[in-house]
Amino acid sequence: MNRFIDTLIHKAKAVLCICLMVGLHVALPGCGQTAFSPANTIATPVSEADALGQTMAGTPMAGAKAIEFDQITKSFRVVYADGSARITGQVATDANGDHYVSQIVVTNGERAITLSINSSKQITDVVTAQGVWQRPVTTNAPSAPGAPTAPGARATGDVDQFVLANAELFSLSQQADDLGFSSSTDQAQPKADTAAFAPLLWAIGGLALWPIGAFATLLFVVELVVVLNVIF
What we know:
Blueprint: H1 3-22, E1 41-45, H2 51-56, E2 64-70, E3 75-80, E4 87-93, E5 99-108, E6 111-117, E7 123-128, E8 131-134, H3 154-165, H4 167-178, H5 199-205, H6 214-231
Antiparallel strand pairs: 1-2, 2-3, 3-4, 4-5, 5-6, 6-7, 7-8
Helix pairs in contact: 1-6, 3-6, 4-5, 4-6
């Protein structure tokens, strides 16, 4: 592992820990939930006492009551008792027949971010209110991520793999933060030039659904996808 990637993973973990400590216990207000067909839906209860509830404790997912999965549409949603949070997405199947989250949408009020993901843990598209980012096409086939090395290390290992598979995107999100292109409000305030001079960074800056910035928000969504992949 090169020094840049090693530093990036270390920073990602540090930023997440700091964000949780300073109060990422926020609700994600949104519009009403789309009804899932009861006949096709599998609901997995969530409580603070079970393993999933403990994993989500201290994050914006805290307080979820269930995760619903529609077997026909392959869509899912995180359900909260007060309806104030909305996290939805799609599930796909890889070459081994395993399910994985292929798309996730996280909303905060009227703002939303959408990430599309392939079976190699590569984020292929990012859609924000500020624009669209698409992963550059390469001629090399993506390598399959390695398996965790020890029992109980699944979550940490998978987060590391996601960061490695998306090192360029994490780097760009940090640049967006540094240049002031990230904002949790409708109007970002770039420190240098304008969006016209850096449209890519402007689009990625739109990941910032909270004041923590694009980098930490991207890390949170990766953590969220890892938890959901365990369920599906």
